[in-house]
Each structure stands twice: as C-alpha cells, then as structure tokens.
TrEMBL record:
Pfam families: LysM. It comes from the Eukaryota. This is LysM domain-containing protein. PANTHER family: LD22649P, LYSM AND PUTATIVE PEPTIDOGLYCAN-BINDING DOMAIN-CONTAINING PROTEIN. Gene3D superfamilies: 1.20.1280.50, LysM domain. Residues 86-130 form the LysM domain. Residues 162-186 are annotated as: Disordered. InterPro entries: F-box-like_dom_sf (IPR036047), LysM (IPR018392), LYSM1-4 (IPR045030), LysM_dom_sf (IPR036779). Transmembrane segments: none annotated.
Length: 271
C-alpha cells in the first residue's frame, strides 16, 4: 500500500536504521563500498568508522573494535594469523626460538610477522607480535587497529595481560594510550640520536636511550650507559666504539689462546 511505501522510504532515510542494516545485513565488503554510491545519506553513514568496525566485529565475533585502518581494504583482506596479534614483552634472556617454543609458534612465523632477521634484531624491540592461531583466541576479544612503525603493517592488537598498563582509548590494546606514546618517543629519540648526535633533553629520555642500546647490542644497561656517557650520548658513536672494543677483545683472546698453544708445545719433560 501507499502507507507501507512511505514508511519504508522514511526508514531508509533514518541513519540509525541504516547503521543496523549495514551491520546486521551480512553484506560483503565490496557491497558496503558500493552502497556508499547510492546517495549522500548512505555515504555519510558509511563514512563513520564505527559502522565498518561494527561489521568487522560481527564477522570475526569480536566484542569491540577501535581504531581506523589507513586503507579500507584492511577489512576485506584480514586473515587470522596475519591480522590478529597479541604482544610479548621481550626479556633480556629471550631468543626468537625460546619465544616460539613458549608461545607455540614456529620460528619462521615469528620472524615473518615481526620482520626479524636474527636474535640481534629481536633486542631492538621492547615487544614483539605473536600471531593468533585459532578463532577461539580472538572470539569475544577487544581489539585495536593500529599501524606498527617497526614492521610497517597494520594489525588488530588483541587486549591481554601484557597490555593492562595501556588501558584507555584502545580498550587496553597494545599500541594505544601511554605505551603508544612511549614507543613513539623511543622511536623519536633513536632518530634524533642517529641523525643529529643530540644528547637527550631529560634523564627519562637518557634512560630510554640506554635501554635501546642495551637491547640492540644484547648487553647490560650499565655497559650501555658507560659507552653512551663516554660519547656524550652520541648513540652512533657509542655503538661503533662498543663494536671496536668487542672486536679488539676477541682478537686479543685469539692471540692469547695461540700463545698458550705454542707454550704447551715447547714444554717437554725429561725423566
């Protein structure tokens, strides 16, 4: 009837109704993109990141999704092991193999996910990404879509125990709140130090630089601080000096071993 037609037309102009249709309608991502071309109202509704995140949450059975990807194709191309990750805090005793064994992942998968070449590159990171294995790990979880400057990829970071200190806008997910600011500050300190040889402006930044050098070279923080103090916190110079000293020490150890070998050969007993 005419009354039913006018009611349906009015419903299709109601933003709240449209949001429910787009979220609950199980539309394909390409269909949602096409829907933006129908009219200005539909386009405005679909410009809201909350609609896309709600659709994403419904498809992956997530409790909450925050953040916005840089490219809308992120939603369509999402895959379990390459998109959903948790965080592992790197300890001084960790290796890629030990983390893989502890978390039940392969070494090659961890290296691929985190763009790691060796254990040395592992210690440049405060935390690394652990890819999800099963849907049960993400079902009902809170996630935050974030871009990682270390791997140059976007991930859905799963909220977990390691991320409890970062609760805030990202729902406690890594890469948000205070932790995201600290990681950004560390990256800025590293860039300034390497490019401009500039001493940090505060004791807190100096301590962060000490930690960065210690993790990078897999040495204790007191040793890293010694070399940084000697180079006036010129990170590039400090790391070069450490490597020179290490090479000299290795050379001297080899020379000493060779001298001891020759001395043993020259000694003989006469009875």
């Amino acid at each position: 009837s005419r009354g039913d037609g006018s009611t349906a037309a009015a419903a299709m102009k109601n933003e709240d109704f449209l949001r429910k249709v787009f979220v609950l309608g199980s539309l394909d991502w390409k269909d949602l993109a096409r829907a933006k071309c129908v009219c200005k109202l539909w386009a405005e509704v679909l410009e809201d990141e909350g609609v896309w995140n709600a659709c994403f949450a419904a498809r992956w059975e997530l409790k909450e999704v925050s953040g916005k990807p840089r490219n809308a194709s992120f939603y369509e191309n999402a895959a379990l092991s390459s998109t959903f990750v948790s965080r592992h805090r790197v300890a001084s005793s960790d290796t890629v193999a030990s983390i893989a064994l502890k978390r039940g992942r392969s070494v090659s998968l961890l290296k691929q996910t985190n763009n790691l070449v060796s254990d040395s590159s592992l210690f440049c990171r405060a935390k690394i990404h652990i890819p999800a294995r099963t849907l049960d790990e993400i079902r009902g979880a809170r996630v935050a879509i974030r871009h990682c400057p270390e791997t140059l990829r976007e991930y859905c970071f799963i909220a977990g125990e390691d991320d409890s200190e970062s609760e805030g806008e990202g729902g406690g997910c890594a890469g948000s709140g205070a932790e995201g600011e600290d990681e950004g500050e560390e990256e800025a300190i590293m860039k300034v130090s390497l490019l401009h040889s500039k001493r940090p402006d505060s004791a807190k930044q100096e301590q962060k630089m000490v930690g960065l050098m210690a993790r990078s070279l897999k040495i204790c923080e007191s040793e890293a601080k010694y070399y940084l103090d000697a180079s006036e916190f010129d990170l590039k110079s400090a790391m070069a000096t450490y490597r020179e000293d290490l090479a000299w020490e290795n050379t001297e150890n080899l020379k000493e071993a060779e001298r001891m070998r020759r001395d043993r050969k020259s000694v003989f007993c006469c009875y």
